[in-house]
Amino acid sequence: MEIRMDFLNWLDHETSMKILGCLQDPPDLVRVSSVSRSWRHFVIANGLCKQLCLRMFPHFRRVYCVIEPTCGIEKALEVGRSKFVEWETLKREHRAYAFLAQGCLLFPFKECILDAISASSTDDYPVESIRNTLLQGDRSEGRPSYWSSKGQHDTAVPETLVYKLAADICVITEINIQPFQAYFQRDSPIYSAISVRFCMGHPKCPMGDPLGEPLDDTADDKFIWTYSSPEFPMAQVY
Q1: What Pfam families does the entry give (predicted)?
Q2: With contact defined as beta carbons under 8 Å apart, do 225 and 199 qualify?
Q3: Using 50, 70 and 90 to split pLDDT, how confident is the model at 204?
Q4: Domains in the chain, start-ordered, CATH in brackets?
């Protein structure tokens, strides 16, 4: 008779978490949870689908709770049974985050920025060009990737970066800014703005396509700004 052994029963919790934590595709975790009851219990009890979804899409960390329609009988059974309620919550989150992650992979969020138009100044062009801000991460082709201005003696003088959006109408739900940490300098200092302000508008004259190389120009006289946000202090962290 063939003897089948469940490796989760032979490994400690930390090792099992490390192994299953290597899975990077939500459907793989769903398949793992279908192998056996013990595997399903392990995946759900440790919130592995939720953890993977939040690693892939950090903006979902703002989700406060997951709610599904439930019938009155199920609600009645939950009364006075805290372990039952906790397990049902974990199962609900497992289903919701697995579905959410898969949906985001099928219909990914798109960047609203199409191209860079201008920077008010650039210290070392093209090495420190505004185009570097369009790239993911702080390295490109083995070199540091960042934008740096020439700087001002008066810290009250603002620097400006101007971008072209991907369409005439864009729904902007979130703006992310990552300061640059100079890992190649002593103590790895962080170069961050004191505060930021966002302006939306349109050019006074048609700009045409393609945009070409971004300019060193404040560009204020070339645009009509229809919205300006308040100033937001920027956290001096990476």
Answers
A1: F-box-like
A2: yes
A3: confident
A4: 7-106 (1.20.1280), 113-233 (no CATH)
Band the pLDDT of 71: cuts 50, 70, 90: very low
Give one DSSP letter per residue of 135-152, joined into a string.
Answer: SSSSEETTEE--------
The CA distance from 138 to 192, in Å, is 14
Q: Is the pLDDT of residue 73 over 70?
A: no
Q: Which one, of 136, 163, 161, 162, lies nearest residue 148 by Cα? A: 161
Helix-helix angle 48-56:37-45, to 10 degrees = 50
Joined together, the tokens standing for residue 224 give 């009509």
56: amino acid identity, one letter: M
90 sits in which H/E element:
helix 82-106
Could you give the CA distance from residue 61 to residue 97 in angstroms, rounded to a whole number? 11
pTM beyond cutoff 0.70: no
User: What is the Cα gyration radius of the chain?
Assistant: 25
For helices 48-56 and 82-106, the axis angle rounded to 10 degrees is 40
